[in-house]
TrEMBL record:
The IL7 receptor is a heterodimer of IL7R and IL2RG. The TSLP receptor is a heterodimer of CRLF2 and IL7R. Interacts with CD53. It is a single-pass type I membrane protein. InterPro entries: FN3_7, FN3_dom, FN3_sf, Hempt_rcpt_S_F1_CS, Ig-like_fold. One of its GO terms (cellular component) is external side of plasma membrane. This is Interleukin-7 receptor subunit alpha. CDD domains: FN3. Keywords: Disulfide bond, Glycoprotein, Membrane, Phosphoprotein, Receptor, Signal, Transmembrane, Transmembrane helix, Ubl conjugation. GO terms for biological process: hemopoiesis; positive regulation of receptor signaling pathway via JAK-STAT. GO terms for molecular function: cytokine receptor activity. It comes from Marmota marmota marmota. Belongs to the type I cytokine receptor family. Type 4 subfamily. The lineage of its organism: Eukaryota, Metazoa, Chordata, Craniata, Vertebrata.
Amino acid sequence: MTILSTALGTVFYLLQAVSGESGYAQNGDVEDAEPDDNSLLLSFSCYSQLEVDGPLHSLTCAFDNPDINTKLTQIAFLFPQWFSSGGKLPNLNKLQDIYFIKKKQFLLIGNSSICVKLGGKNLTCQEVNIAKIVKPEAPFDIKVIYREEANDFVVTFHTSHLKKKYVKQLMHDIAYRQEKDKKDWMHVNLFNTKLTLLQRKLQPDAMYEIKVRSIPYSEYYEGFWSEWSPSSHFRTPEVNHAGLSLLYGPLSLIIRRLWNNCVRNQKR
């Protein structure tokens, strides 16, 4: 009978890594467990979100092979310190193909071992630093305001991280394109929440789509790009041909007169 067909289910373990000690030694089952030949099959990826719900942090994991989710039951996180303090083992929430938990007691300094256990003694672990796998929350509320007197567009948006204690420094990626150009995205990176787009660099009388995402950008916190914000749309104004005629009409007359004078001087 293969590992995937076992009825004993699966348990995720989050184990605190302590310098000079094995994180597994705090629990007998984990200490005795040995890696399984199917470790590649059980490989998974995780990201953290700090202060995602007030003081609560979250950790989200997913198997790299989505088919394995149909074979697994009874999944939970295990924190060794809770056993010494009599803490209760929390339930791991499942949402489609991802597994996540919200808690205050995440180790934010140093490495942790995240393990997945199948059956009795089959174990696959990864060493991670919670502070280095942060995925920010997506920006929101993008607004685009056209300033006719300046011939530009002012883009603003909001991010919940401005009010957070930990991950406050972010780099933002603003992407925009004409709606008819499905792949031709233009990108601008910035560290604040305001961008100015010059009208002369955009096509006249065109509908544009714009969106933004964020990534940690500091000496300590690192991680992944957030999800894209909901898109916003704006239209550029038409070219004012009447205004151009008023501007270039007298100019063309001056140029014509200068040309005629040059021709006369050459004939002399």
